[in-house]
Automatic annotation (TrEMBL), chains A, B, C, D, E, F, G:
Compartments where located: Cytoplasm
GO cellular component term of the entry, any: cytoplasm
Subunit structure: Heptamer of 7 subunits arranged in a ring. Interacts with the chaperonin GroEL.
Keyword Protein biosynthesis (UniProt): no
Record organism: Terribacillus aidingensis
PANTHER family in the cross-refs: 10 KDA HEAT SHOCK PROTEIN, CO-CHAPERONIN GROES
SUPFAM superfamilies in alphabetical order: GroES-like
Family classification: Belongs to the GroES chaperonin family.
Assigned keywords, A-Z: Chaperone, Cytoplasm
GO MF annotation terms: ATP binding; metal ion binding; protein folding chaperone; protein-folding chaperone binding; unfolded protein binding
Major site of localization recorded for this protein: cytoplasm
Name listed for the protein in its UniProt record: Co-chaperonin GroES
Length: 94, 94, 94, 94, 94, 94, 94
């Protein structure tokens, strides 16, 4: 299992085929092309200056759109994941 | 449905024809050309260091002017949307 | 009507003729040339980290000097406006 | 009258002759040459994140030294002024 | 013993062989290649503006993934270590 | 008299001869060569976001080492001074 | 005596010979080579926005590793010192 730190989430990349099924089509001309993924793990949130954790808005299982070129790719137990900061997530789909 | 995160909003781009109807005409010489859109979804707001959400000033249905070149284009269920941060919205029209 | 967001104001540009009347003359050599305008709408203010709005110092009807090249030009119902952040306003005249 | 906003002050430039009289002589080799001026108006101060105004340290009539190349020149009712942020003021003379 | 300061951790680099055993395989094409390590010492945490220490999320013995090119290499008593800030740790594995 | 603002101090430059006497010798190879001076006036301190002044650590008469190339040179009543921010002071000597 | 300001410390550089004795060997390939030193004086700490001093984690006599190229070299009463910010200290050895 991968447990992300702070305000990070672990994302399973959604295949191009599934993408069409869920209705998201990415325009050719987009300056900052978004991508779709499924949240498989969420961090415990960033810590404010008042020493409180800010819980993430997304939860395990959420289908999300995120900014392309953000995050770090990881291959774990044979599957590809992406570790993102919540700030790179644009919206939840569904 | 697209549910934006944090202080983001989802905008439906207003067609050039509608723009004339609502009275906004963009000057040729504008350094940072604004554009018009209709808010279709708002995020729950950014979190302050006191761990409180700051509700957005704009609401669903608002007609807004935003800075050109801001945000990320998304095509969802065949329609074009733009996901913006509230900070890129200049004014509400109406 | 244009309702600016946050700490923004909507300014009606003051004509060169009026400028002379109100006594402001801009020096040729100014590095950052100021300009004059009349406030026609003010935002509800920025939100502090304590989730309070900071009311703007300027009010509707104020004659102001602002830094040239700041803000975004908008033409609305046939008139030219400028949307500025309060921070780009140097002084109130009068 | 010019009423500066926030932590700004309006300065009347002190003539080169007066400068000698008050005892300030600027060295040729100074990297960042200071200049002298008289405060003619002060803003109400910046607003902290606790929504309190921080009163300025300088007052009307103070003779000050400020960093050259800071601020914005304004000509108002035939006289030259400079609008500075308090942070560009180095010291009060007197 | 090495006792890291603030929000730093001391990491023992995990050999390429062990890496395969634990299931992490790094993709060739990763823009920001993550690496694996074992936490051998943690700092007491950063200090907030309220003068409180924020305890680290990772603990001694944790197997972690961190961003390549982060941290500082140190050889201590014949072994190689890496001193990282917690912010450069992407996730805990296990 | 020069009364510095905020977290600034006015420094009287210590001559090269005195420098040797007090035991400070600056290495030729220093990347950021420090210099020695005597504090002749201190500001009332910076204002925190809680609207409190932070008193300076240095006092009138202190012999200090500061980073070369910091501050602004001023000649006042025939003597050379340097106006520095307290942050540019490295240490008090003595 | 040198009394560092704020979150600074005064470091006595540890000779290459001693370094080997204490077990620290610096790798040739290190991007940011750390160095070893002994703390001879600590500042009273930085001041938070709540106007409290944050005591330093290191104390007089600590053997530390710090990032090469950080700090300012000073020669005082014939000995070489380095004045560092605590943030440039990676770990305490011992």
């Amino acid at each position: 299992m991968l447990k992300p730190l702070g305000d990070r989430v672990v994302i399973e990349l959604v295949e191009q085929e599934e993408k069409t099924a869920s209705g998201i089509v990415l325009p050719e001309s987009a300056k900052e092309k978004p991508q779709e993924g499924k949240v498989v793990a969420v961090g415990s949130g960033r810590v404010t200056d008042n020493n409180e954790r800010v819980a993430l808005e997304v939860a395990e299982g959420d289908l999300i759109i995120f900014s392309k070129y953000s995050g770090t790719e990881v291959k774990y137990e044979g599957k590809d994941y992406l570790i993102l900061r919540e700030n790179d997530i644009l919206a939840v789909v569904g």
